[in-house]
Amino acid sequence: MTALAFKVKSKNGQQILKDLTSDSTVGELKMFLSSISDVGIERVCVLCGYPPKPLDISNDHKKLSEIGLKTGETLIVEEKAVSSTGGSSKPPEQKPLENGIASHETLGPCRPGILMKKVVPSDNSCLFTSIGFVLNGNVDTSVHTLMRQIIAMEVASDLDTYNEAVLGKPNADYCAWIQQPSSWGGAIEVAILSRFYGLEMAVVDTLNAIINRFGEDKNYGQRVFLLFDGVHYDPLYLEQSDGGIQTIFPAEDLEIYHEAEQLAHEAKSSRQFTDLNKFTLKCMVCDKFLTGQVEAQKHAKETMHTNFGEV
Question: Which EC number(s) does UniProt give (predicted)?
Answer without folding.
Answer: 3.4.19.12
